[in-house]
Amino acid sequence: MIRKSVYALITLLGVALLVAWLNRDALVDRAIQARLQQGPDESFTDDKQHVRVLICGTGSPEVSAAAAQACTLVSAGGKMFLFDVGDGAVHSLAQSKIPVDRLERIFITHFHSDHFHDLAPLINTGWIWGRKTPLEVQGPVGTKQVLDGLAQAYALDEGYRSANMPHLKKNRSVAFGVPLEVEFGEGQRTIRVYNKDGVTIDATLVAHDPVQPALGYVLRYKGKKVFVSGDTEVSPVNFEAMRDADLAVHESYAAHMVRRAIPQMKKLGMHFEAEVAERTIPYHADNIALAKQAQEAGVKHLLLTHLIPYPDNFVVRRMYTAGMAEYFKGELTVAQDGMVLVVGDQRASPVNDKHPSRPPNNDESGR
Questions:
Q1: Contact status, residue 82 vs residue 73, Cβ threshold 8 Å
Q2: 171 inside domain
Q3: What residues form DSSP beta bridges with 342?
Q4: ∠ CA 90-277-228, rounded to 5°
Q5: What pLDDT digit, counting tens, does each position of 284-341 carry?
Q6: Is residue 279 located within the same domain as residue 241?
Q7: Does some domain include residue 163?
Q8: C-alpha Rg value of the chain to the nearest Å
């Protein structure tokens, strides 16, 4: 009986393989069609009522498990704004099926490489895949210098592609971004840099010495407020930008973990790494100090990103926010690459992870 069942199974498998072989062209065509029909995620441009946020990069210069360095996409009124574009950001955006040719504007917080490393690939990708108008890139003084350098680096690529693709040749200016530099008047710390169709974005100076200027950005739409901090220590100069924010996407530094690691580094002879760690502590946002300021400022949801040290497993993620809930009573989330949030009627809420390689975000409250 068992032998007959085995023979029957082998026969059935053989027939299935034969059918697949005879219909291989049709199967390949179906696979191609299925791939081609995987369109972009339209939710960020279709939703004109809410502010939507995609965390497209949570990493830092530290080598980590993060899919990308600093990158935050915010949509409002159906327009998509990208804040920083670190290494890996273009791939991360592609994983989340974001149509990069439809970005409204890029905002750079400062010119540490982990915040603009993928700027040139992003501009180049948008041009190749159908963008019609040059992409505006706004940032601190120095933005033009950076874009001029990128244009020079990509000049050969632009020439080759334009020669091969007539439609690209007609839109050669799109291959290079348009620099918009944020300049502050004497004594001025905040300036409006975008005001269109009910969406406003203000650039605000933050504290990231010796990087000067370093910017954060405040987006408002339909009574909702989102603060994207960029890199900054916890400082009174950031208070107004944080005040009553529905969502603060804030850089985060678990100083309690780093301080504990430094003596171990020295014991292991890792003196260079220990010195680097000691030097980075003063100009990043210590988690406990951040929790206190967020509570005082009335932040509803504090979303931690630019994570140092990177919490790449459940245990470390729990350690990462230790003590914060004692001071901050709002919603606290440790961001993950691909996380999507909606700033709704009450508060921003994690929705789902757009990256198929990562598990759903079921419990990231840090409590």
A1: yes
A2: no
A3: 52, 349
A4: 40
A5: 999 999 999 999 999 999 999 999 999 988 888 889 999 999 999 999 999 999 999 9
A6: yes
A7: no
A8: 24
Residues 6+ apart with CB under 8 A from 307: 58, 59, 60, 64, 66, 252, 254, 320, 334, 335
| Number of domains composing the chain | 2
- The model carries a pTM of 0.85
Domain range for 316 is: 41-141+179-353
Domain check: are 85 and 11 in the same one? no
Do the Cβ atoms of 114 and 91 come closer than 8 Å? no
Structure tokens at 305: 């990103």
Which residues are within 8 A (CB) of 21 and not within 5 positions of it... i.e. 6 or more apart? none
Question: pLDDT tens across 270-283, in order?
Answer: 999 889 888 888 88
Co-location of 57 and 33 in the same domain: no
Q: Is 249 domain-assigned?
A: yes
Q: Are residues 259 and 314 in the same domain?
A: yes
Identity of the residue numbered 330: G
Is 50 in the same domain as 27?
Answer: no
CA distances from 146 to 68, 180, 213 (A): 21, 11, 15
Residue with tokens 């009986």: 1
